[in-house]
Amino acid sequence: MTSHPAGQCCIVGVKHEGEAAGEIKKINDVRTYFSYPSDKSTHNAVLILTDILGVDFINVQLIADQFAANGYFTVVPDLFNGNPVPANQENFDVPKWIQTEMPHPPAVDPVIANTIKELRGTYGAKKIGGVGYCFGGKYVARHLKEGSLDVGYTAHPSFVSKEELEGIKGPLSISAAETDQIFPAEKRRETEDILEKLKVPYQLNLFSDVSHGFAVRADLSVKPAKFAKEQAFYQAVAWFDEYIKNV
């Protein structure tokens, strides 16, 4: 594994204030959050693959709206079939959820493949960037291939196997936290060693003074956390601008 499985740190964080600007619709019976850029263009798209808190967590909807504000038609499918992990529930047993209820690739991959098919078909997307937070990072790696995702970005990924990372075929950008038991220093270095051997552009930014989940669930009242969260988002936008809009 180039990152460890999810743990309790994956459900802890601060719920952000704001009102989502997008809407929930369905793609092949899968609830999906849609957010459009101001010109309603769908040619440049972003597919957000969430952490285990799922599509209804307001933070990820606000992030989708931010990508839309930067010119990207953005969608967020429900990868958990209505059964995500609750945020900040003190006694919730994450390892048990992983063993008994967490969806695995045979269930998740078709949702992503069908969403991408819909984006390219019905919505005419020419280029699609994949954003993976925690759990979603695994699936950015799995789908960063010809005919699927064109460009990838992930923050504090979990569950990513060595083979999945070795199999990517497009540019990948990573935001990492200084304190992260899921993606610790040795896993970052293993990731760097793998990426160095691949013939794709890559980037790995390490942010101090933050922990796992910061790109989605940071405490915005803490200045270093707010800075890191915002910079991680700008990192993703700059990456997509370079490899989607400027191609």
From TrEMBL:
<dbReference type="InterPro" id="IPR002925">
    <property type="entry name" value="Dienelactn_hydro"/>
</dbReference>
<feature type="domain" description="Dienelactone hydrolase">
    <location>
        <begin position="31"/>
        <end position="243"/>
    </location>
</feature>
<keyword id="KW-0378">Hydrolase</keyword>
<dbReference type="InterPro" id="IPR029058">
    <property type="entry name" value="AB_hydrolase_fold"/>
</dbReference>
<dbReference type="Pfam" id="PF01738">
    <property type="entry name" value="DLH"/>
</dbReference>
<protein>
    <submittedName>
        <fullName>Alpha/beta-hydrolase</fullName>
    </submittedName>
</protein>
<dbReference type="GO" id="GO:0016787">
    <property type="term" value="F:hydrolase activity"/>
</dbReference>
